[in-house]
Amino acid sequence: MKKLSKENVIEILKTIKDPEIFIDIWTMGLIYDLNVEKDKVKILMTYTTPFCPWGPQLNQEIIETLKEKLGIKNVDIELTFDPPYQMPADLRASLGI
Question: Which pLDDT tens digit goes with each residue over 14-28?
Fold first, then answer.
């Protein structure tokens, strides 16, 4: 099990793929803020749309993966749609959109 640090949490988040686009949630810019304290991780994130059918599944995967890989006991995910999601410009360019 790895040491709990912001860098290690980001490394794990980069392994979790959006179920529709198949790009990791970190690269997609779905994570707006990330705080790591002792044995707690707090994530402020969004979905590509407020009505994303994969949202609950994505949250569960984040929680389970962080607990499994880093031994975190408390993962708190807060959703926001302010500002609305916009794909990062460099990712749009690399996808040709």
Answer: 999 998 889 999 999
Q: What are phi and psi of 24, to 5 degrees?
A: -65, 150
Q: Which domains does the chain have, with CATH numbers?
A: 6-95 (3.30.300.130)
SS (H, E, C) 2-57: CCCCHHHHHHHHCCCECCCCCCECCCCCCEEEEEEECCEEEEEECCCCCCCCCHHH
Report the distance separating Cα 47 and Cα 86, nearest Å. 10
How buried is residue 44: exposed, middle or buried, by Cβ count under 10 Å (0-12/13-18/19+)?
middle
Residue type, 57: Q
pLDDT of amino acid 61: 97
- What whole-number distance in Å separates Cα of residue 48 and Cα of residue 81? 9
